[in-house]
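Researcher: Please predict.
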Amino acid sequence: MSDDLLRDLLRQVSRTFYLSLALLPADLREPIGLAYLLARAADSVADTRLIPPGERIDHLQALRRAYAGEPVDLAGVARAATAGQASEPERRLLERAGEAVARLARLPPPDRDGVRTVLATLTSGMLFDLTRFPGEDAAMLTALETPEELDHYTYLVAGCVGPFWTGLHVAHRRRLRSWDVAEMSARAVRFGKALQLTNVLRDVPGDLRHGRCYLPARELAPLGLGPRDLLDPKMTPRARPLLRRLLDVALEHYEVAWRYTLAIPRLEWRMRLACAWPLLIGLGTVRELAAHPDPLAVTTPIKIARGEVRAILARSLAAVWSDATLAGEAARMRRRIAL
């Protein structure tokens, strides 16, 4: 892959992920970078609301076939999808999807197969979204039914990345070859679920306005709430017990994710930092959600300040070399969360 695709374009479509990718050893950047870019291209198609949902599903199915190695007119998909795309970097990403797919086909077979497997699961999560939530606004609001459905969703769109990430690192980094891949992959699934559940809880107000309620209807009902009630700021405080329970679930995932991170050998400091950064930032977001008087009624997503992000990055650069210091940094963030 040309450097400008991995470096410049990836940085424009995801500044946060680019930080982690830039840390990784060179032999891991290409398969992981390709997986991210192609998943992001598919996500751009899924989220282009100027295109009817049925057409988006068709485009996603075409991308899935292309990612699996089948011949597809990706230029045609890009032309159709970019017509409704407002973001210039996202448009350029879609226009260069064919280049990324061609590069994927030339990866060493184990890396190529890993990328294709994780892309198949991620795009199935996007299709789940489009079919489970057919509406585009609050008038057609639909909810997930059960906590199990929410858990499965967080696996499809994030948890599945954990085994891919783990398998690639074990294959490429000799210091990890003593790992129990099945056990560490299971921990890595929880890692992805922690981050995605945090995103879900942060984005509830915006998702409701777009016709999607990820808070399970069967958990809302005992609180005297239906999904549509969450559109009324006078009603949202009644959902606080459910929010607390789901934040507790997220924190349980974070605990497992930290065990994963601290199992990484200290000399694999690049991988350690690439894992520690999103966990620390995620815990900061959980803290803000827990502290807010009514996070389900906000008009802009809750997030930690940029200054705190910079401070986290700076502290972790020193902490990464010590198990005790890195664990202490995680514990310090956890103690600040009051549920």
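Model: The radius of gyration is 20 Å.
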